[in-house]
Amino acid sequence: MRLWTLHPKHLDRQGLLALWREGLLARAVLHGQTRGYRHHPQLERFRSQAVPEFAIDAYLAAVQEEASARGYAFDRSKLGVIRPVPAIAETTGQLEYEWRHLLRKLAVRNPALAERWQAEPPACHPLFVIAPGPIAPWERP
Question: Is 0.85 topped by the overall pTM?
Fold first, then answer.
């Protein structure tokens, strides 16, 4: 499971589809609708929020908006009512780690997109706010 700190605009089609699918799995876990993946480290930052269910829905809403802007029909009805949630703090180390990880993946499956993003700094998902710091302790590099 990879719930990117990076903005979904950086993902290729395959990555965006995987993020939606994995995000819906994370949503099911946080809503108590599945028994698998309950202890996945990627969920720690959502569980640390006052209402984790609202946070994951806000996260997925931004993914759905990116998909819609690209012409994909991700089913928004799979999410609850989107409520305002506080931004989740994340670090420059985590963002940079994910950026390098994504660029390696894109170099293999979409070299043109990897080359395009090489010239730009990474943007973060709108749910996150970035502060200086190392890779997140939940990350498994």
Answer: yes
